[in-house]
Amino acid sequence: MFIHKAYRFRIYPTKQQTELIKKTMGCSRFVFNHFLALWNDSYKKTGKGLTYHSCSSKLPALKNEYEWLKEVDSIALQSSLQNLADSFLRFFKKQNKAPRFKSKNNHVQSYKTKYTNGNIEVVGNKIKLPKLGWIRFSKSRDVEGRILHATVRRNPSGKYFISILVETEVQPLDKTETAIGIDLGITDFAILSDGRKIDNHKFTIKMEKKLKREQRKLSRRALHAKNNGINLLDAKNYQKQKVKVARLHEKVMNQREDFLHKLSTEIIKSHDVICIENLNTKGMLRNRKLAKSISDVSWSAFVTKLEYKAKWYGKTIVKISRWYPSSQICSECGHQDSKKSLEIRDWTCSVCHVHHDRDINASKNILTEGLRIQALA
Ligand SMILES: [Zn+2]
Known about the structure:
The chain is α+β, with helices and mostly antiparallel strands. The chain contains eight helices and 14 strands. The chain has helices spanning 15-46, 52-65, 74-92, 201-227, 236-270, 279-289, 293-313, 358-376, and strands at 2-12, 109-114, 121-123, 126-129, 133-137, 146-154, 160-169, 179-184, 190-192, 197-198, 273-277, 316-320, 346-348, 355-357. The strands form three sheets. Strands 2-6-7-1-5-4-3 form a seven-stranded antiparallel beta sheet. A five-stranded mixed beta sheet has the order 10-9-8-11-12. Strand 3 (121-123) and strand 4 form a beta hairpin. Helix 2 (52-65) packs antiparallel against helix 3 (74-92) and helix 4 (201-227) packs antiparallel against helix 5 (236-270). It is globular and about 85 Å long. Bound molecules: zinc ion.
């Protein structure tokens, strides 16, 4: 099976390369904004927008008018137009808001370039990009597959990254002839029907507290600058703190990604059938009870990873209804006990008298129900 896979690495451009990257981002932004204005204008006048092709055909004239556009990767400018056209498309499908003008003060700056005729290449710990030549990057994994495109990003903390999208072939993993149920928990991140509890919350809570503290400090500095009539862009202490918050956020996100990748891969490798609750609504219900932003994102990101990895490696995900009373049923005898509030962490079945850990019992029920559904399918 052929799949698309993204690699992300930190890159270490030289001073000259950094200048050119900044210039390319600036030019991409300029092109985006220029055509966004034309697009909006066209709406006002004719009630109709433009298209990627109509913009693209005007690009050479724009380049002649602004010679400096010729200094940068021309594919990046084309991609910028594609990005604009896609944004409008999503807007019409009501998937996002109308495209807005990009500012050089935006949090993340980026540009995208496409592979053509060997213009992007990875050799050792260096990557070749159009106009930039070879850039050193920190190589944590081998890049395998056919390169489709690459995106260069500058994070708020001032670091540069590259995302490389490749097309590659994956082989199904060996069958293990086992199935597992997973309950996404509140005190633990996930509870498996084999009795394992996977805890990541301590880390999350600690980092979130730290992040909140630094964010409060940032707001105080913003207020201080405002009270003294200083523009935020010139407020040194504010800017310093902003970078600090961005770095911390980055760290939290990277560690979270790493954790979710390892856990999902391990589960997919070890089992053929993975039974899980249908999260959509349940996730939102939980959301109201405990507003832990990172955990909430983690749950859905985890399920997404399980789903695509199952597809890649020939495994099966079975989703069970959110109405299924996984925490009320006794996994031992099947008796449906009363509704249990969240504080009840363990209980004894009134029929078979088996004592249950609430979450492990729920994950066992999720497994049973998942296998029942799978047998029907
Ligand atoms: Zn029982």
